[in-house]
Amino acid sequence: MPTVKPNKTSEIVGKIFKNQELAFGLKEFTDVNLEDVLYISEQEPHRFYVKDLKSGISRFVYDENKLVGKPEEIVRQLWLHKLNFHYGYSFDRIDTEKSIHFGREIHAKAADIIVYKKDKITPYIIVEVKNPNEKKAIDQLKSYLNSEGCEIGVWSNGIEKIILYRPYPREFEDSLSDLPGVGQTIDDLFEIKRTWKELNPKFDFVEIIKHIEEFALAGSGANVFEEIFKIIYAKLYDEKLARERRENQEVIFRKYRDPEKSYEVINQLFKNAVREWRDTFETSDRIKLSPDRLNICIPFLEKFRLFETGLGELEIIDSAFEYLITEVSKGTKGQYFTPRHVIKMCVRMLNPKDNEYVIDPACGSGGFLLHAMYHVWERFLNTNAAKKDYASKYLFGIDFDDNMRRISQALMLIAGDGKHQIFKRDSLDARDWQRPESADAKVGLKHLLTQFENPSDQKDNQLTYRHLNFDILMTNPPFAGENPEQGLLRQYLLAKKDGKLKNNVERHILFIERSLDAIKPGGRLAIVLPQGVLNNTNMHTIREWLFEKARILAVVGLHGNTFKPHTGTKTSVIFLQKWNENEEPLKDYPIFMAVSKKSGKDNSGDYVYKKDEKGNYKHAPRGRKILDHDLDKIAEAFINFAKEQSFSFWR
């Protein structure tokens, strides 16, 4: 049979799996070329086969005419190759489609792959393969292990794998980070020493988070978000210490044979991380998982490198945190995840430079800061040292919500070489900036405040949010809720009407004033607001106040699906540039106006991706599907407008 040409292989694999994204490689098998195992029938060129590595016979995988196939067969052959080539098991110790009987059950089920011990009789490893689009069937794998008295089981769909370990006849004890190769024992897989450079910077963080949730935290009674972040912080601290201080850069974040030792090591790493990166957790915090549950979590992370990941890997980590945010989001309080294509539009339009300070006073997961960093890295900075310096010095975030703030802190720690400028504060209440602090938090806040203070504006040596002097502010403040607290409202001009203090004011209105306070004259701002601020007649005083304080550069109306499933509130992004000191506000000038017709989401809030004329997903150069939205076009149109208007930041 003739082999399939390489340029045809990706297309066929995408069709077989009904997912063109998989054409860019099954993550479990980076050392195998699919064209080496994929064949075309000479008699029927529309039918595709793979050569079975165990038996040598051809197995059907796809029929182009009938659009049917067996995608799991490709995964099986790739696993046969890996077991033989990577782990060293000879094919005379491997069986495929081995019948497994369950008690008196008449119809036997077949295990996809069985690896035997040296006697070639006793089952050692069972591999259950699935279509890459199928969900896990761990219970089926466990039943196979029980029936055969087998120690190790692998579930794999080619993209991800789960390795179960059962020291028969005891119950399932653990997960394993890898399979034992020929000549290795189970004990050899424990306490494998690695250096920081040996850690893999390529990983699927979303799947790692899901596995930790499913296998270690489900039913534990633990706060999933809290415990996952404690483990991540322990991992980050271990990498930082290994890279900077330890001899041979050895990492100690790994699974130990004794769960108690694993807990002792990982929990101490976490406590050290709390001391290293202040204002994140309480100094009294500890990992609350049991040693046994923690020992299940560790293998999912121990082989991967979080520090010094590339731009693409940071985006993957960001998407994993989006998944976590969705799990813990509090839409009823106006807090929800800002879609990254909205953020990218804002960043492109405001065009931050490498010497400009950026702040988000409601930073949440840090999306605006992260993508401002991407923008500057790609356009202005060429060396890793310059990139790390920018990430750790020029990006600032404030948020009062612990869960959201920890995400942004973790992202900036990873990007900023172990440093971040993310602080826990109520951005709306200047009094919160003067409350007693632990010494560590005070140091960070003092740096934030004194670096941007305007001495002529100080009173009684009390630094507040009003003394900040940033170049750029981008934010999506919480909409829901009002502020009736009079001590807070007294701080705002927009909380007064005819010289009298209002009884309550919506939070996003206060954020408008607070955000303009934070940028210097000539500074620019992007803020997501409910459309009513721009349209409702009772908001005319807000609009008049804005005209006096800043030039309105642009208004972009977002589609109603943009923030679903969290909220269906109609929103707009308003772009402003603060008038310079002694600059007379213009009375009449052009404003860029646009309305998004494609949100990148459907009515349920699920992401929608572009397809070609054949119905296949389109892909970016890195292999990721392309979101179907029009915000990039809007950003391009604004950039042309900005250049025509000779805006200073686009000259």
Topology:
Blueprint: H1 6-17, E1 38-40, E2 47-51, E3 58-63, E4 68-69, H2 71-85, E5 94-100, E6 109-116, E7 123-129, H3 138-148, E8 152-156, E9 161-165, E10 174-175, E11 194-195, H4 205-217, H5 224-244, E12 250-251, H6 259-276, H7 291-297, H8 311-328, H9 340-350, E13 358-360, H10 367-380, H11 384-393, E14 395-399, H12 402-415, E15 422-424, H13 439-452, E16 470-475, E17 482-483, H14 486-489, E18 496-497, E19 500-501, E20 505-506, H15 507-518, E21 519-530, H16 532-535, H17 540-549, E22 550-557, E23 571-578, E24 592-595, H18 631-644
Parallel strand pairs: 7-8, 13-14, 13-16, 14-15, 16-21, 22-24
Antiparallel strand pairs: 1-2, 2-3, 3-4, 5-6, 6-7, 8-9, 9-10, 11-12, 17-20, 18-19, 21-23, 22-23
Helix pairs in contact: 4-7, 4-8, 5-6, 5-12, 6-7, 8-12, 9-10, 9-18
InterPro entries: DNA_methylase_A-5, HSDR_N, SAM-dependent_MTases_sf, Type-I_RE_MTase_Subunit
Pfam families: HSDR_N_2, N6_Mtase
Domain DNA methylase adenine-specific: 316-648
